Amino acid sequence: MEHADSGNIERWLRAINEFNDTKEFGTTRVLFTETEVAAREYVKSEMQKIGLEVTEDSIGNIFGTLPGSDRKLEPVWTGSHIDTVLNAGMFDGMAGVVSGMEALRLIKESGRSHKRDISVIVYTSEEPTRFNLCCLGSRTMAGKLKREDLKYIRDNDGMTLEQVLTDLGYDLNGFNGIRREKGSVHAAVELHIEQSINLEKNKKKIGIVKTICAPTNYLVIVEGRQSHAGGTSMEDRQDAFAATCEIGLVLERLARESVSEYTTATIGVANLIPGASNVIPGRVEFTIDIRDCSFKSKEILVKKLKTEIKRIEKERKVSVHLELKNHDVPLKCDPKIVDMIERSCIHRGIEYMHTISGAYHDSMFVGNFADTAMIFVPSKDGLSHCPEEWTDFEDIALGTDVLKDTLLELAM
Fold first, then answer.
1. What is the predicted pLDDT for the residue at 1?
2. DSSP characters over 256-310
3. How far is the first Cα of the chain from the last one, in angstroms, to the nearest whole number?
4. Over the stretch 13-63, which tens digit does the pLDDT of each residue have?
5. What pLDDT was estimated at residue 355?
């Protein structure tokens, strides 16, 4: 029984991590910067070294393909991303890319025949770091990002995604060909670090994902009355920030009371206006992020939240405007692939558990057109999106063994 080489995994991960704009504090590799483009070239060259056919589409999704014996059949996919949030770690996304490369190396060198093509993919910009929109590559594959949208998606410097792609030499005439119709990909399996503490806490090496939670995001604007901090009595205030705080506490309570198996709610950004220590804020702009493994229970929470906000408006004499940014549906992982992953764990004697992904992944969009599943490997202390992010290379190798078994079975 072949085993993944943790040395290959470590070498690739450390090499990719050298493409980094903030070496003094974690890893920063933002989409289509000089650093990220250089990392792309490195990954493509390593794919070629292990004998994969390398191609790239019009939004920059990279494909490293191991051909099958019947290339007319729908392919099997794996992969993840290599872009990061600011000051991140070296594993989020990258572990899924290098595990896919190692799995395909194992399959190729084993000489095992398989009918379907198997591809490891570097999806373009899973993180929303540059363009404030996640999963650009997989979103386009799912038909959720159109050619005309490229003119309106801008980075913080005002550059449109269309201009950036054009400047880098991508042929946007082929953009509409990126979309995949349902069933055009046979199956997809993504390996990812867990970004939570469940595996470590339960002393398991593999997490078999049941559901990928989907976010609902709002931009919220609270309008009160700006006035003097000393001259305005507590009774006469229309404090936009105090109302925001109450909304935050209500949101937390509703998430804790949810009957769903997994619900989270977060206010991640808040901007107080005018932002002076001796002025009662007259306006607050903030974000709400609600995630749930059940779309129905998420909608119930949102309905309760809106009712509570109406009460807060009345009691505090403020107005609240909610701008819906997205309201996505959770993805249930394909039960047949889940069973395959479980069989591999049992066959190899690897301790595993079924789990839920609170974080979204490219797999959530891939699930629009392919049967999809995910494999988690442990994150030390549950930390991710920070310099302290860590997963043992040996744990990634164990996950790669399971990934290889699953890909090969799906490609037969």
1. 79
2. HH--SSSEEEE---EEEES--TTEE-SEEEEEEEEEES-HHHHHHHHHHHHHHHH
3. 18
4. 999 999 999 988 999 999 999 999 999 999 999 999 999 999 999 999 999
5. 97
Coil vs helix vs strand at 201: helix
Please state the rounded mean pLDDT for residues 104-116: 96
**Which residue type occupies 20?**
N
- CA dist 405 and 106 (Å) reads 10
Residue 175 is classified by DSSP as: G
Strand 270-273 with 319-327, pairing: unpaired
d(CA 296, CA 307): 17
pLDDT digits (tens, 9 = 90+) for 338-379: 999 999 999 999 999 999 999 989 999 999 999 999 999 999
Measured CA distances, 342 to 363, 364, 403 (Å): 19, 21, 11
What single-letter amino acid sits at 353? M
> b or e along 67-101 (b: 16 or more beta carbons within 10 Å of the residue's beta carbon)?
bbeeeeeebbbbbbbbbbbeebbbbbbbbbbbbbb
CA distance 78 to 88: 23
pLDDT per residue as tens digits for the range 54-106: 999 999 999 999 999 999 999 999 999 999 999 999 999 999 999 999 999 99
Q: Exposed/middle/buried for 311, CB within 10 Å: 0-12, 13-18, 19+?
A: exposed
Q: Which tokens go with 403?
A: 């990934």
Name every residue whose Cβ is closer than 8 Å to that of residue 100 and which is 6 or more positions away in sequence. 64, 78, 79, 80, 120, 121, 191, 403
What does DSSP assign to residue 27? B
